[in-house]
Design goal:
The protein is α+β, with helices and mostly antiparallel strands. Helix content is 34%, strand content 27%. It is globular and about 35 Å long.
Length: 111
């Protein structure tokens, strides 16, 4: 199963990204924008994700992905079950979420 440490190793290499703990939850931010957050039990990871692509992603792989709770539907988020995903997929999701938060010039430095 993917752990917070796996994600931490990825996020720590990204420019402007840093880790915080808010109400007993681990989150990764760029400035004040959260791009990755973990459930308190660290079994579900939330990542920034385009709203218009959420339904298709969940329909394609409902065992991996879930919608956020109703009150968070207005945000660009999708939830990921960490026991159903591999490290390559996590890396891609984290990088894509980070790219949504940084200027294109900063994101281009990683690409």
């Amino acid at each position: 199963m993917i752990t917070v440490d796996d994600v931490r190793r990825i996020a720590s290499t990204l420019p402007r990204a840093y880790e915080v703990v808010v109400r007993d939850q681990i989150k990764f931010r760029v400035g004040q924008i959260v791009f990755v957050a973990f459930s308190r039990d660290e079994t579900v990871m939330s990542v920034g994700f385009p709203k218009e692509e959420r339904e298709a992603m969940i329909a394609a792989e409902p065992d991996k992905f879930m919608l956020p709770r109703q009150s968070d539907m207005r945000y660009n988020w999708i939830h990921v079950r960490l026991d159903a995903i591999d490290l390559d997929e996590v890396r891609e999701l984290v990088l894509d979420a980070w790219r949504m938060c940084v200027p294109k010039k900063v994101a281009a430095a990683i690409d």
